[in-house]
Amino acid sequence: MAEHDAGYKLLFSDSNIIRSLLADFLPWEWQGLLNLDSLEKVSGSHITDDVRSRHNDMIWRLHCGEDWVYLYLLLEFQSSVEHMMALRVTTYTCLMHQDLVRGKKLEKKPDGKPCLPAVLPVVLYNGARRWHAPVELAELIQLPPPGFERFQPNQQFLLIDEGAFDPDELDPASSLAAGIFRLEHHRSVPEVVELMEILAHG
User: Fold this and answer.
1) Under a CB-based contact definition with an 8 Å cutoff, are residues 174 and 197 in contact?
2) What is the CA radius of gyration of the chain?
3) Largest CB tally within 10 Å, which of 28, 106, 127, 202?
């Protein structure tokens, strides 16, 4: 299992696969906003090794107009759904922002004042069971007294649940990410062979 997870992480360390993931599985209304050609993996000069080396997490960035948007990708290999994932995502996002502040790698507002960059947290889940945990931190917090709502932290993450897609609608010939999803949830050995050939020549 560890070897499988390491291989899967290696696949999603490839910029072509991340580009395919963004192009084929992000909401369509975002497609014209993000410059996929500007995609780059965040180096240690922007984020310290302590933040970047979290197990199965990767950080990329790309341009949205003239600004950088950070992509925090969590690869979730667990067979069981993590109920507190929204809290984990929020914590990691805050740690990354804190790291950018320390490294003085902030964006600038039109008035020249420093600001934190926007972050898109994506959880890529490949477990056999369908995801059923909250994707928004507010859902994990008990209902606050009236008027307290605006003082509660909140963040959502974009969930990509591989197994929720119909395998027959995932076209490996036109999408590297779709091919990997189908490979992860293959139904027969011949299908694996066919998918490997398609991906090898894609």
Assistant:
1) no
2) 18
3) 127
**Which pLDDT tens digit goes with each residue over 5-56?**
667 788 888 899 899 999 999 888 887 889 999 999 987 666 666 665 565 6
Please report the pLDDT score of residue 47 as a whole number: 66
Handedness of CA 21, 26, 31, 36 (dihedral sign): negative
Cα separation, 9 vs 106, in Å, equals 28
For 90-148, the three-class secondary structure string (H helix, E strand, C coil) is HHHHHHHHHHHHHCCCCEECCCCCEECCEEEEEEEECCCCCCCCCCEHHHHCCCCCCCC
Residue 70 DSSP SS3: strand
- Give the count of beta carbons closer than 10 Å to the beta carbon of residue 99: 17
pLDDT of residue 167: 81
How far is the C-alpha of 200 from the C-alpha of 187, rounded, in Å?
A: 19
